[in-house]
Amino acid sequence: MADESGADATSTSTTVSDAAAAAEAFLATLTDEQRGQVVYDYDDETRTTSWSNFPVTFVERAGLNLADLTEEQQGAAMEVLAALLDDEGYATVAAIIGGDQYLADNSSSTESSLGQYYIALFGEPSTTEAWEVQFGGHHLGINATLDGSADAITFAPTHLGVQPAVYTNEDGEEVQPFEGIYTDAFAFFDSLTAEQQATLTSGEVSMCAPGDTCGFATGEGLSGADLTDEQAELLLELIANWTGLADDETTEATREEIEATLDETVIAWSGETTYDMSTGDGISFSISGPDVYVAFQAQQGSAGADVDGVTTSGWGHVHTIYRDPTNDYAGSVTQQAASGMGGPGGGEMPGAPGDVS
Asked: For residue 70, how many other CB atoms are within 10 A of its CB?
């Protein structure tokens, strides 16, 4: 299903224009009934309640299930993502989708949500007014708001997840969806002094999950103010795995906002301190500041998605959330009730009992 490549536009306006054109082309493949199911008003409450890090059997997604579309319609839907994301961002999304399909084909899991992905548009595609592309499924929840009037794109909130850590695709190629994230995370960790690492691991890793009315408390850990310029650069490169999914201009604009308040940002880490997926139970970390919130959580348990010789727990089962405290709209009482989550900054952890992801 995910066989296109990202457009790698360099400007925000080009991305907005390309994505709007791709979305219009996708809509042109649909019947009137399907179009009515995929396009919502921009301010529809569903926009805040239909993204999740829980399976689609737990939290209903908005829009159309790609499994119910023709091959032409599926291809047109993926072209929307290809226009929105750069090559690296699209490759990450494709690898996540491929991992879910690998589990559906090879594991003993009976979870029916594997392989189901939904697309919805909030507002009509436009180069002059705000609209949103929402695309999600088992280990993915992309929310991209595109506003041509402000020349801005934001991916907050977004969920990227992975299971398994490494798999072999249908072409016999080895795929590791989070290789880039793991590499950047340990490049940052390894750049720290022993004293800094001790401070980093003394804090409590937090999770502001979908549906939570998160207060975004920074908590304890290593402060951005205590980093060298080189360490701060490595931290920003790690954050860019979530904020840098689109073009260079959008990535740089978001980076500048985060960098401006990096001194007030706190990082906490737990789990392994060496990048070796053959040992231990993986890592968890959170990055919380005035302009960024990232949570990376290793899930202990495969929830029945076991494959011999493949890591489907810990290192190989991860949920991540990216949110923007200055532009966050996920505080939905409706979804808290639907998904069993609640409470500022907390909620039920992803991967809790009953989460078959």
From this structure: 10
In a domain, 168, yes or no: no
Residue 221's φ and ψ, nearest 5 degrees, are 150, -155
Residues 125 and 215 in one domain: no
Does one domain contain both 186 and 294?
yes
Are 101 and 229 in the same domain?
no
160-185 residue pLDDT tens: 999 999 999 999 999 999 999 999 99
Q: Are 49 and 102 in contact (CB under 8 A)?
A: no
State which residues form the domain around 120: 12-155
3-state secondary structure of 324: coil
Domain count, the chain: 2
Residue 167 in any domain: the answer is: no
Where does the chain have alpha helices with state H? 12-28, 32-38, 46-49, 71-84, 87-106, 179-191, 194-200, 229-243, 248-260, 333-339
Output 330 or 159, whichever has higher pLDDT. Answer: 159
The angle that helices 71-84 and 87-106 make with each other, rounded to 10 degrees, is 140
Three-state DSSP state, 216: coil
Cα(262)–Cα(229) distance, rounded to whole angstroms? 11
> Does some domain include residue 99?
yes
pTM, whole model, 2 decimals?
Answer: 0.90
- 37 and 180 both lie in a single domain: no
Per-residue pLDDT tens for 205-230?
998 877 666 777 788 999 999 999 99
The reply to whether 1 falls in a domain is: no
Q: Is the CB of residue 161 less than 8 Å from the CB of residue 253?
A: no
CA 346 – CA 357 distance, rounded (Å): 19
DSSP, collapsed to helix, strand or coil, labels residue 272 as: coil
Q: Both 90 and 183 in a single domain?
A: no
